Amino acid sequence: MAENRPLYLGPRLRRLRRELGLTQQAMADDLEISPSYIALLERNQRPVTADMLLRLARTYRLEIGDLASEDGADYARRLGDVLRDPVFDDIDLPSLEVSDLAMSFPGVAEALLRLHGAYTREQQALAEQRDAGPGRQDSDPVREAQRFFANSRNYYHALDTQAEELAGEIDKAGGMEKWLGTKGVRVRFLPSDVLMDAMRRFDRHNQQLLIDDSLDGASRTFQLATHIAHTAMRSTIMQIVREQEFASNTTATLVRRALAGYGAAAIVMPYRKFARAVEARKYDIAALGGLFGASFEQVAHRLTTMHRPGEERVPFFFIRVDEAGNVSKRLDGAGFPFAAHGGGCPLWNVHQVFRRPGEIQTQWLELPDGQRFFSIARTVTSGRGRYGRPQVMRAVALACAAEEAGRLVYAAGVAPNEAPSTPIGVTCRLCHRAECVARAVPPIGRDILADDYRRAAQPYSFAES
């Protein structure tokens, strides 16, 4: 850093504040300065003094070197690279103007970089779709993360064993709040407007874990467990992530977050204790939720992970969809064929439970190749807690192989081979049932029959070859 050169850290300071979950007022209080001064610093209208740099490092326990590197030069370089894109060829963009933009208007510079990044990713995705061959991997981070969990059957022995040890320590301490207290962390339950609508935030400066006080009991417990997973199990989670080669940082972030959720569930529902209860209660999800203080969806998640060697339980596939049919979560603990694309068949009752919210519905399913499954579906809601807060209703479903259904309370006394089943498809594009009246699009590889004088009940009729 040049001796007499002013130091502008606007974007970096703003990112730090957002990462800490602080308002400008809260950061100003921490640093004993005015909120307006914070605003000026973030807009690069004031340089960061040596004293302010020391205050930031001391207050938020950061390295000065990490803070002191300037963003302006980096923004100018990155903007210069972006503006050399051929799409801007006919625009005169002097380097001095680019530098001034990066230094004087860091927010605009960051917005341009984000917009160009999104544009570039979309261009790459379109090119890959056109060039992809039969064996080409999908570059979508969500799909890549789903494949990662499917390949391991959603079971991580290191996380489960560590979670059992932590659960034992937590029981001895008298609960999660007291256990966190032994680590120097105070738990506080605060109104959501104080938390800026965050459900959970960790105040590193004051070593406080702040939880939305309008969450229900199961959600509070899970947020506490998630913080414990992110901290006490961090090295185990990072080791699992480092062992993989993901196509993007976004995939790694999704996997890391999901593994923390896995760890939290394993703390709330320790493997051996949960496995015994599962057999005793014949997979009754509501009963298990009452025993462990967990929600219907949390228990359903946990049931997909029961694959410890020698202590396996019924393997399940889990899916969560909204009323528009968008799949927001898919967990495969059984290697089912609809793990990669399934969830879009309207004949599966996971799409019909919205008509009777909160009621469990069961269904026997049969795929085109003859495989049969048993499904349990129900609606779940999120976002509740206070008046005026929007609620989101989704449907979740668990499915297991038909031969395993007899172990479930939901199929007690029903012979799998005698139960009437609903013919469904993995997805319309991959389902070749010619007689399906619910079909949305024709399957890949089938020609539509040209028939101008006859209209069948199903949307499409297909040529024989």
Structure description:
The N and C termini lie far apart (72 Å). The chain has 17 helices and 9 strands. Strand 2 and strand 3 form a beta hairpin. The protein has helices at 10-20, 24-31, 35-42, 50-59, 64-68, 72-83, 95-104, 106-131, 141-151, 157-173, 176-182, 217-232, 234-242, 249-268, 271-280, 285-292, 296-303; strands spanning 186-190, 200-203, 208-212, 317-322, 327-332, 361-366, 372-382, 392-401, 422-423. By secondary structure, the protein is of the alpha+beta class. It has a 6-stranded mixed beta sheet with strand order 5-4-8-7-6-9. A 3-stranded mixed beta sheet has the order 1-3-2, covered by helices on one side. The radius of gyration is 27 Å and the shape is globular. It has 3 domains: 10-106, Orthogonal Bundle (434 Repressor (Amino-terminal Domain)); 140-313, Arc Repressor Mutant, subunit A (Orthogonal Bundle); 316-425, Beta-Lactamase (2-Layer Sandwich), CATH 3.30.450.
Using brief descriptors, characterize the structure shown.
465 residues; alpha+beta; 434 Repressor (Amino-terminal Domain); Arc Repressor Mutant, subunit A; Beta-Lactamase; 3 domains; six-stranded mixed β-sheet; three-stranded mixed β-sheet; 42% helix; 12% strand; globular
Helical content stands at 40-55%
- Global outline: globular
Biggest sheet layout:
6 strands, mixed
Poorly predicted runs of 5 or more residues: 133-137
Which CATH top level class of the largest domain fits? Mainly Alpha
Give the count of structural domains.
3
Main structural class? alpha+beta
Query: What is the third-level CATH name, the topology of the largest domain?
Result: Arc Repressor Mutant, subunit A
What share of the residues does DSSP label as strand, in percent?
A: 5-15%
Order of H and E elements = HHHHHHHHHHHEEEHHHHHHEEEEEE
Number of helix segments? Answer: 17
With strands numbered from the N-terminus, the spatial order across the biggest sheet is 5-4-8-7-6-9
How many E strands? 9
CATH architecture of the largest domain: Orthogonal Bundle
Radius of gyration in whole Å, from Cα?
27 Å
Straight-line distance between termini: 72 Å
Mean pLDDT score = 84
